Amino acid sequence: VPAPLEEVTSAVVENAIPAPVETVKTTATAAPAYPETYYVIVGAFSKKRNAITAKQRLEEKYPNSEILVERVSNLTRVGFSVGNNYDRAMAQLASSQKEDSSYWLLAK
Asked: Which residues contact 12 (CB under 8 A, 6 or more apart)?
């Protein structure tokens, strides 16, 4: 024999005033898992010897910088590291472009 069901009653609240809802707008920028390194690219070369020559010039001019030599498609990019601070990288790019306006910034 099944047990008798218990009667359930609930209170009804009339004229309830909802709690105020506060809307907060936030802006968040996700930081990369590791900081990007910026490079001033001084050229992209199809001939290996030209890339090597550019690399050697950069090593003489910026002996304490990491020199980037990266093959992309049919070209080899050559550039030098300017750190991971965007503002400083842009300042270095502007300074370098006084020498050659074709230089550009790569984030990697």
From this structure: none
**What is the identity of the amino acid at 71?**
R
Tell which residue, 107, 108, 103, has the closest CA to residue 54.
Answer: 103
* Neighbouring residues of 54: CB distance < 8 A, sequence distance ≥ 6: 42, 43, 45, 78
Tokens of residue 75, six digits = 């070209």
**Which residues, 6 or more positions from 44, have their beta carbon under 8 angstroms from its beta carbon?**
72, 75, 76, 77, 78
100 pLDDT exceeds 90? yes
Which pair of tokens denotes residue 46? 């199809």
Kindly report the pTM of this predicted structure.
0.66
Which residue matches tokens 């498609």? 73
Tell me the per-residue pLDDT of 19-63, one tens digit each, with 9 for 90 and over.
666 665 655 555 555 678 999 999 999 999 999 999 999 999 988
Q: Do residues 46 and 74 lie in contact, with contact meaning Cβ atoms separated by under 8 Å?
A: yes
Alpha helices in 1-108 (DSSP H): 48-61, 86-97
